[in-house]
Specification:
Length: about 500
């Protein structure tokens, strides 16, 4: 009884809960619709939806520190930007924006908001990010200077423009004028000097595409410190990129030998050595901007600051040479190669040495070469003479006496007197009265048959040995005792 009753109560409760949940569900949905929720797919929101709201002027947001964030986006800004023309959506950068009303900004200040939004640039521009990490701006930012330039400070936010041609990669002409103005946001004083220089005045007065801008010397994303020794030593190559280009310099009648003449000078040679061996070591030898200026470069024919004026050159020289007098700059030939019209004395002296030095050194080198060749020839000739083979007839005539003498010293039976080759014994030691060993050797037979026959037969040897045994006192052959004789003669004397 109890179990069916309990089961019925539970069934009634389940049905009641199901009906109540269905009646409450619409109320929950309405509450959720009133709260801003992140969009599951932000790209599903079109730019028209965003612009329809943000074109209304006066839309602002107050941040925690009291800064006011302007939320107005003018209709011609983003559509005309590089991102708008390429079809990028607003929510590709504003990824945290959901349905309306938007969640409150998490940034406490305008600068913090800029830095936060700047991080979205890295999603598509990672190579530029890697370059920027080694720049002077990134170094300052990492050191705690939050005002250091980030991407949007230079490129903007909704007004990002294209700087280079998509096909050639060349800098667009209107971008050349925008670049100095962009840098002026932080470097205003330098910008004012640039406007008065030969480069800046030509850029804005003539819209000249040959004129260098900030990025031509300092770079774009990997901007380095300009006050380092490495940058100073590398600065001549920066100037040479334009000033050694023949076509460009021909337009303005400028010499392209500026780099060569600088390197040939003591100053340039020293700077080049330091750049290759010790790029981080300081040197007081002048580089281009020490004489011509940095951002305030003037024309050489400028009456007040031009370096064609000797007094202006003297002022520059006295920076490193305080003792320089008015005649000091006359020793400098500038960057122009001497000609018969300009510095004729130097020109003709150089011309003389062009012929004199080869005329002296050439014969000297030839003389040394001839002497070495003659010495080597003598050594080779001497070795060749020593290596000449003697004729067979000469060899036979020279060896016949030795063959006859060798026949005398042929092996004898045991007990016979030991003999020595005639060439090893002095003639006086074996000489007999009236006849020398040499004469005897010449009388000996020299034919092959004679050389092969023994001098003493075996029968004669046996007879001689029997006679020696039968004799009571064998007398050895008398041999003159030269040693004792010489001793007696010495005692007698």
């Amino acid at each position: 009884m109890r179990s069916p009753f309990i089961k019925g109560i539970l069934a009634i409760l389940i049905i009641a809960l199901w009906v109540g949940f269905g009646a409450w569900q619409p109320t929950l949905t309405s509450v959720q619709a009133q709260e801003p929720q992140p969009t599951e797919n932000p790209l599903s929101i079109s730019n028209e939806v965003c612009i329809n709201c943000h074109v209304t002027p006066g839309q602002t947001m107050v941040l925690d520190n009291g800064d006011i964030l302007d939320l107005t986006v003018w209709p011609e800004e983003f559509p005309n930007s590089i991102h708008g023309t390429l079809g990028y959506a607003c929510v590709q950068c504003h990824r945290t924006v959901g349905n309306y009303p938007h969640p409150p900004a998490s940034a406490a200040s305008l600068r913090e908001f800029t830095i936060t939004m700047n991080n979205t640039c890295y999603t598509c521009h990672e190579p530029q990010l890697l370059l920027a990490q080694d720049s002077v701006h990134a170094e300052a930012f990492n050191a705690g200077q939050i005002q250091a330039a980030v991407c949007t400070d230079c490129h903007g936010a909704h007004t990002v423009q294209q700087w280079r041609d998509a096909k050639s990669g060349e800098l667009l002409q209107n971008a050349r004028q925008r670049i100095p103005q962009t840098c002026a946001n932080c470097h205003y004083e330098i910008y004012q000097k640039y406007l008065k220089s030969v480069h800046g005045s030509t850029l804005y007065a003539d819209n000249n595409a040959d004129v260098p801008t900030c990025i031509d010397c300092h770079g774009v994303h990997n901007i380095q410190k300009p006050n380092t020794n490495a940058f100073r030593l590398a600065s001549p190559q920066l100037c040479a990129k334009c000033h050694t280009e023949p076509t460009m310099m021909a337009k303005y009648g400028l010499s392209t030998a500026v780099m060569d003449t600088y390197i040939d000078d003591f100053h340039g040679t020293t700077v080049s050595v330091f750049k290759e061996q010790s790029p981080d070591t300081a040197t007081n030898k002048p580089v281009c901007y020490d004489c011509h200026g940095v951002h305030d470069i003037r024309r050489t024919d400028d009456a007040r600051l031009g370096l064609q004026m000797q007094e202006n050159i003297l002022v520059r020289c006295q920076i490193c040479h305080p003792e320089a007098t008015a005649n000091f700059p006359t020793a400098w030939l500038s960057h122009y190669i001497p000609t018969p019209d300009k510095n004729p004395i130097v020109y003709y002296v150089n011309l003389f040495y062009k012929f004199f030095i080869p005329g002296v050194l050439g014969p000297m080198v030839a003389l040394v070469g001839l002497d070495i060749g003659h010495t080597l020839f003598k050594k080779y000739r001497k070795k060749s003479q020593l290596a000449v083979v003697i004729k067979p007839e000469a060899i036979e005539s020279e060896t016949q006496p030795s063959l006859a003498s060798d026949s005398i010293s042929s092996p004898l039976p045991a007990g016979s007197i030991e003999t020595t080759a005639p060439e090893a014994i002095p003639e006086t030691a074996v000489e007999t009265p009236g006849e020398s060993t040499t004469e005897k050797s010449l009388e000996m037979p020299t034919t092959p048959n004679d050389l092969e026959s023994p001098l003493i037969t075996s029968e004669e040897t046996e007879a001689a040995s029997l006679q020696e045994e039968s004799s009571p006192d064998p007398v050895p052959p008398s041999t003159p005792d030269l040693t004792s004789q010489s001793g007696e003669e010495a005692a007698h004397e």
